[in-house]
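Data card: per-record layout.
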Amino acid sequence: MRKAKLEWVAAAVGVVLLVAGCGSEGGSGKNKGGGSSSSSGSTTGGAEAGGGGDSPDAAAVEKEIEAAATAAGFVRDSSGEDVPAELKSCMVSWTPDAQKAADPKKSYEATVATLTGGGWTEGQKTEQTGSTMKTLNKGTWSLKASNHAAAGFAVVLFLGTDNTPQCEALFKADLEKNKKS
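The structure for this 181-residue chain is written out next.
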């Protein structure tokens, strides 16, 4: 189970890299954040892709997600949420136990609202039957907030990645390493 979850996180990072590499100029989706994205995935209002500026670090991103999600009624489920040591400064994964929330969809929406009220700008939004994925941006960070629900089943995930060239190189190296194993 743990290996399957790590493989899923690795796949999610691959999707994040794909989206970040494509930028929002030619992609589909709705950019409601007001700031445009460069091809590196950083926002024009935050720090440039080289890092620094007003971009938060991984600990600050995790703390913001934790505060917003717990205030919205989520309890963290950290089983299988291990981020590889070499990626800890570039990636944050926060998974609530959606089954313990009174209303996972409302808690998800409240978490996103708190984050956007705290300086995260909403970018692309994708909705399909029972699923919503929103991209939130702050500095060089991109946060994928996803809510998936079906009859008696709910999965919510907040996955943040730092889109600096240094972190993108680490993500690519990790993906290559996992292809070989």
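Known properties of this structure: Strands lie at 91-94, 121-128, 131-138, 141-150, 153-162. The CA atoms of residues 2 and 80 lie 5 Å apart.

See the next section for split statistics.
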